[in-house]
Amino acid sequence: MLKPLNTAAQLGYRTAFGLFELPMATAQKLIGIKRIAWMFLLPNLLIFGLFTFLPIILNFFYATSGGDAILLAHRPYVGTENFASLLSCTDYLDPNTCRRDVFWRAVYNTGWFVVLQVGFMVAFSLLTALILNRDIPWRGFFRSVFFYPVLLSPVVVALIWKWILQRYGLFNAGLEDVGLSSVDWLTDANWAFFWIIFVSIWAHMGFYTLILLAGLQAIPADVYEAAEMDGASRWRVFSKITMPLLMPTMIVVLVLSLIRAVQAFDEIFVLTGGGPGSATTLILQYIYETGFASRPQLFGLAAAASILMAVVLLVLTLLQLRVTRGQAEN
Amino acid sequence: MAVVELDKLVKDYGDMRAIHGVDLTIEDGEFCVFVGPSGCGKSTLLRMIAGLEEISSGELRIDGTCVNEQRAAERGLAMVFQTYALYPHMTVRENLGFGLENIKTPKDEIRRRVDEAARMLQIGDYLDRRPKQLSGGQRQRVAIGRAVVREPKVFLFDEPLSNLDAELRVVMRGEISSLHRRLGNTMIYVTHDQVEAMTMADKIVVLKAGLIQQVGSPLDLYNRPANQFVAGFIGSPRMNFMAMSVTKVESDGIVVADTNGRSFTAAVSPDGVAPGDAVTIGVRPEHLEIGSERGHPVTVETIEQLGGESYLYCKDADGHPITVHKSGQTKIKAGDAAQVFLPEESIHVFKKDGTALTRLRIGEEA
């Protein structure tokens, strides 16, 4: 017997449960209670399958076939030829001796980018986090200021900086105002490389600063008080207390930012388009251009390059998993 | 040698005054315990001595030198924290040696002093372990060891035993006391546990709301509490209080009566009271005699029989809760009516403002 309904809310609940009850009861009866979990997983599995797993599998077919046809049926099987083509070099240190010299230039660019961007960004993030963790005036304001760029879309970030750095941009206008000559910030190969690193640090360091700040705040205050009683100098406190206790967070930050740096694309593509020449072309942009932007579209080559990149990312991700798991056990 | 003098010490947090001008001298080699309910300022006072909290006004002197402006480490003190505050990434040996490394003590000397402290505190077997691999009691020993190796003038303890279980607390209490006997240093110890204060202290400082209520030896505080707060705080279970009014004042005592006209004689000096004054009398549970023919009628509400001793929780006709401690076991049952006798030399009398009248005869000392 149903009790009389005395509020609208009860009526609402009962209707809502009623709507679910019938299909749920039927489903349980049809497929059994043990397998019902699969029913809940199905929508996600479909989406993952369609947009993640299927493309991964298709990618292998493209990587092992040649020609410029998009339909797999029209593409001849070529085995490892795409990989061989990418990897054929007389001198691996000199991209000019490689069959796919732009690929190797992109690889070297990415290598330098990763080392410099991650190195400087982690250093700056640490410095910023240390300062923001102190009792400075306007602390809340500065914390949000440093985090704000993270909230911006990468394309917006790149457009802002392009507006500042282009030939007739804000920066050059400022230089000319004080009597200096303007500089080709984005069209000089060295400067362009400097600026893609600068801008990507600017855009992302807030995120890592936040993680490091959380790490710093997780260090108990009484440990610092004990160090004070123990007469430790500021440098000893930093090197013997703060850094060792922050190390687990530092490693997470390092691995996360490494993975992101290897995948860098959007800001750079909008800011310099990979130029001048291929001076700021990174590996992801090479894949995009080889597969989609150039004629003929070399899907096979692009797919092979993306598999090589995936291997690098896989290694980094496994490293990250190991590190974070190690920490969870500690 | 280390005499610690507190001269009108004040601590303000913005508009809030946490410590209201504390004057105190802690003699060389004394074991001084700050005790009081939470929020009374005892930890703040200790941290001001340590140098972890700035002194708003007043002067802190160690051996006659004002140390207000000295950094914590320069004051020659060592502190044991409630949470141990061990360095989690260092081994026990590194934890113990860190303070000595900071002042560039030679390696051999550090090793010698760490080994000696480890032997004294029986943590020699754990020197290569991290704090995480130790039990609470072992961590506490390491925290004490870290203070010992620095050979400080004064040891500061901030509720060091409150994170330990009851049994271990008793053991560590004894060990800290014996450490004090062996080293002979001045020690300042903060606790909210009056049993710790009574068992360890040479001198107890009772604090309430940032003010010293009384300073004295444990038995002084027990026998001659200066006011009702101290009387209630020292002693367990706490003293029974009953509101009365003075009916007669004589040179060797006063007579008080409850609302039902039952009167009691108290052997206290009658200074400052006159017949008709409202007072509060206090008697410790262990000084009440229950079951006798004469006395104050009560109803027994609950009984705790511990075998060796019994606690009877009663109420009198005026509704005052009265706790009686009786050694041994009792045949009285909950719900029984009984008589409680208040011996006149055991009655404390507190004036309206809470201050105690001087007791003229103290039974315990007889």
UniProtKB/TrEMBL annotation, chain B:
The keyword ATP-binding applies. Keywords: ATP-binding, Nucleotide-binding, Transport. SMART domains: AAA (SM00382). The keyword ATP-binding applies. It is found in: Cell inner membrane. InterPro entries: AAA+_ATPase, ABC_transporter-like_ATP-bd, ABC_transporter-like_CS, ABC_transpr_MalK-like, ABC_transpr_MalK/UgpC-like, Mo/tungstate-bd_C_term_dom, NA-bd_OB-fold, P-loop_NTPase. CDD domains: ABC_MalK_N. It is a peripheral membrane protein. Its main location: membrane. GO terms for cellular component: ATP-binding cassette (ABC) transporter complex, substrate-binding subunit-containing; maltose transport complex. Residues 4-234 form the ABC transporter domain. GO terms for molecular function: ABC-type maltose transporter activity; ATP binding; ATP hydrolysis activity. Pfam families: ABC_tran, TOBE_2. Belongs to the ABC transporter superfamily. This is Sn-glycerol-3-phosphate ABC transporter ATP-binding protein UgpC. It comes from Jiella flava. The lineage of its organism: Bacteria, Pseudomonadati, Pseudomonadota, Alphaproteobacteria, Hyphomicrobiales.
